[in-house]
Amino acid sequence: MGRQELVGRIISDAEEEAKAVIAEAENMAAQIIAEAQNKASAQMAAAKADAEAKAKAIADSKAATARLDGAKILLSEKRGVIDGVYLAAAKQIAAMDKKDCLAFLARLLKEYAEDGDEVVLADNFAYSADFAKLAVVKEKNLKLVFGGAGISGGFILRGKNSDRDLSIEAMIAADRAEHEAEVAAELLR
After folding, report:
1. Is 167 exposed, middle or buried (0-12, 13-18, 19+ CB in 10 A)?
2. Nearest 10 degrees: CA dihedral of 169, 171, 175, 176?
3. Cβ neighbours for 55, distance < 8 A, ≥ 6 positions apart
4. What is the layout of strands, in order, in the sheet containing 154-158?
5. pTM of the entire predicted model
6. What's CA 42's distance to the chain center, in Å?
7. pLDDT, tens digit, 9 for 90 and up, residues 77-119
8. Helices marked H in the chain
9. How many CA atoms lie within 13 A of 115 on its CB side?
10. In terms of Cα–Cα distance, which of 93, 110, 109 is closest to 157?
């Protein structure tokens, strides 16, 4: 074997070894690229899932806020209607004619006044003379005070044991406290 053959063989072996190294490097590069692509795909999927979860949380939060705002508006509207109902009731009581007004006040006196109570009437009470003639006033020996109660209608009973506010405002407020939930429920029908 000559020198030329030996050099040829060394070059041939070196080329085959270089091809093997290149093939191995290409395989490693392909594995690294595949692993990087898998890792990038996994990270992208995780990022997408996180973004979707955040978007859903934001949408849910906005929906909850919208529901709460809607409930607040509905409650405000219901309160407005209820206020209107009780305001109308107060106006209707204040606008009663003489006969109905005296009958209403007589019923209140029969139910709540005790013997010897002082009845303090509203400053603007229009039927004072007729009120004084009510049978219940004489029966229960009630003392009448015309004005000074600081109320717009009805009266205040001042007794030995306790005072009772039977002004229109107090009666409307008491009825509202007792029945407001029922009125609100009726509004939802």
Report:
1. buried
2. 10
3. none
4. 143-146, 118-121, 154-158, 163-167
5. 0.58
6. 44
7. 888 888 888 888 888 888 889 999 899 999 999 999 889 999 8
8. 3-94, 98-112, 128-132, 135-139, 168-187
9. 1
10. 109
